[in-house]
Amino acid sequence: MRRSIATVCLSGTLEDKLSAAAAAGFDGVEIFENDLLACPLSPEQVAERCAGLGLTVELYQPFRDFEAVPEELHLRNLRRAAHKFALARRLGAGTVLVCSSVAPEAVDDDALAAGQLRALADVAADHGVRVAYEALAWGKFVRTWERSADIVLRADHPALGLCLDSFHVLSRGGDIAGISGFPAEKLFFLQLADAPHLRMDVLQWSRHHRLFPGQGAFDLARFTSRVLAAGYPGPLSLEVFNDVFRQAPPDRAAVDAMRSLIVLEEGLGRRDPAAARRETAAVARRDPAAVARRGRAAPPPPAPAPEGFAFVELAVDAESGTEVARTLAATGFAHIGQHRSKPVQLWQQGDARVLLNATGTARAAIGAFAVETGDPERSGRRATALLAPALPRTRGAAEADLTSVAAPDGTAVFFCRTGAPDGWLGDFILSGTPGPARTGITAIDHLALSQPFDAFDEATLFYRSLFGLAPEHDAELAAPFGLVRSRAVTDPGRRLRLLLDGTLLRRGSWAPAVPDPQHVAFHTDDIFRTAQALRDRGAPLLNVPANYYHDLDARLAPAPALLAALREHNVFYDRDGDAEYFHLCTEILGSRVFFEIVQRSSGYTGYGTANAPVRMAAHRAAHTRNHTAATAGTRE
Predict the structure, then answer these.
(1) What pTM did the predictor assign?
(2) H or E element, residue 416
(3) Reduced to 3 DSSP states, what percent helix, strand and coil does the chain have, rounded to the nearest 5?
(4) SS3 551
(5) Long-range contacts for 625-628 (Cβ within 8 Å, ≥24 apart)?
(6) What is the tens place of the pLDDT at every residue in 372-386?
């Protein structure tokens, strides 16, 4: 299928949007009227610009409040439409989108609507364009695709067809079973948008909270497969209204949008491979050039199942490197190796490996992590096909050739196979062995990565597409310094867990003492043994306020002995049915990183998110106290 994007999805001027869409590989665009009105270029110059970028103008939109109105208003609407159809021709757009009316003058009369739309189609045909009629989910009377389809069929005009918008259909819980039986010649356009499930006014939901496919909760593969089964011949086009996307750099948002369509098409092929082959053959008959375009970019190879974390790498400077190393030793890790050509240390306990990279100036931050995979080369090819930016890497002779790509927040993601003869461990001069699990830590349980304000949904799609990580446990937290979003993404086997956090609103100049915290969570089978061992070894453990345990007793009523142990060792607690979760934290290391040690019983899949606001406040108090003490010591 051709791939198209509405200019309303992107920020910037119309010229910015067209350049970004072309650079991301789109075949065409829907031009939104407001973008054209603000553009200094004439319609002919816009058409020329699109042609020069290799873009077709698939649609001009929107034309509003036309049908089922009194005759005098109908005549004025026809005059207005004639101007817009002439404009569409100047742009080179062959189709104009007409939304179902929300005009106060509109009446509930489908026969009148059909008759007036037929008259509109006559005018459109005179100008050499078509009308794609769309049911707005908040239309005054026409709100469902079925009703708009009935009106189109009743009007019975070759220049009038249907536009199906996934948001308008799925937000109302529409029955999509009948779409596959709708006449293909009347399916003029398809618009795709995902969205989270929200309980709010549908107009506000649509105008502010749409997402690219794969970032929300709609089953777009099922919806799109129904449309394709009907024989729809046009492009897959994205129409996403989102306040965050319209603030993001347009080139980055366009790449995110293209990635979403690649993943959607992949899902369509998995859903019905035979139908995918039939669709390709049909496209070849209609548009051989489209097949050639598709052939230039091979579909991504299937994702190898992730097998866990190979390592996490912390970027440190001289001061924070000393602090982190001291804390790793106190938590039972052993410094077992040094990189052959770089200032990178290898620390390990059990199967948990931490690299300390002192090549930069960061005051302790998660700079990279590596995913264990049975086929690193295939994982790398998949990332490239999904437009993940490859990161340049300097390596010495005989060092492992590791592929890494940049996640939306800038974190480097590596693909590796630790046990391979030419694996990454060979890059280190080993000076020891991990030895016994000194404090009971056995592996990395999860990583928590703070996302920039405008990268949260992009990150969800990024990890979902590369590794097949599904989102779960969405939450909004009333943290001490504003609302925080939290979302986990994990694979079916729960061997690779990531916790994504971000602010709901862009922060101003005033921020907490620990902005954008990150953490590495290590697993233990005995939280109290580990807690005691860490205390004995002098690890900088976070003190939990007594008020937390009073509330915990009221909420969950743990056994008195358990409550006493939790309080004694500063352990947080959560429960889901009979499944339990225990976690304790170190203080902040450097400016934003801390370690967490967790014990989860079978059946607990969460992350103790309800405890996060208390932990954030405790971290701020400890960090401020330590900073004040350090400042006073410097003055003395």
Answers:
(1) 0.89
(2) strand 412-416
(3) 40, 25, 35
(4) helix
(5) 626/587, 627/513
(6) 999 999 999 999 999
